[in-house]
């Protein structure tokens, strides 16, 4: 979305507000927009909070180990998942957005580490839906459910749910039910290994299974878009649709003959349009339209292997992909093609260990933040022309990255 379009949209919103409330509304409130980057070091147990506009560090949080970061749906909480240390810390982003129909309010406070520490054997995926947070443990036969609101208040109580057997899986809150991966307990595994995933099941609020297990071999990758949740499988993408009192309904979207051999194992969900973007091997991505009658999948070839990718939550047409040659690509998801490419970093090969230090992306308003661990930088890129506008120096090796923020009225 161009800067002119964004400015026009803001002007229209202000005019509409004036028409309804008159000039008094402007006297009692002012507009504010703020974005914060939360950056995890590649090897040090630290997460830094950085103000995007000034580039200054506004918070430093010492942890117990290397952290993978995930952001809650609300943007209020950053989860620092330290799998090797069997712990998850919750960091308050200090930004709270609340909807008031004709406008949105924003409350801005200092970021801080919450008092609740979530412990379990090898925590992996942390998934939020509304106020519900599901923390899955790879080395325990359980996931924990906790309220995001209670994390902020410091009085969190965790409720445990059984996952049949320890496995590298996921649990997704879905209203009064949960979507939970299923391990294959009939396959013999060597000591220290985990069983593979064979499918997905729906469980109710008491942890009881509802209906039959849906096949999803090698289940890996999940995302939500509108009211749908999708999972990557060897057979295709499994979609969970709302099903009322009986829980979500599961539907497989097979790859069929339209795609070459491969599978989806990482998914992102569109925010203002219902679609999913997934990887398909290392040098392709695929657009998934669950309701298309004739083109469920659209494959996009990349010039080299993918390092990271992200969707623009404010501009539903735009996705960004960073490839190992250091180029950032703008994808038009409606056209299903690359429309612009620019070199941002030096090449970062995908060869080597999967957790080697490589760049990560986060979209913050009309800009894209790109970590560059070799240079100890976060590069800030214009989302329209993909040109670097400035850099932010970050101590150590900036690696994992999420962006929290937005705009609203401050009363």
From TrEMBL:
Gene3D superfamilies: YVTN repeat-like/Quinoprotein amine dehydrogenase (2.130.10.10)
Family annotation (InterPro entries): AztD-like, Quino_amine_DH_bsu, WD40/YVTN_repeat-like_dom_sf
Identification of the protein by name: YncE family protein
Record's keyword annotation contains GTP-binding: no
Superkingdom assignment: Bacteria
Endpoints of the signal sequence: 1-27
UniProt keyword terms in alphabetical order: Signal
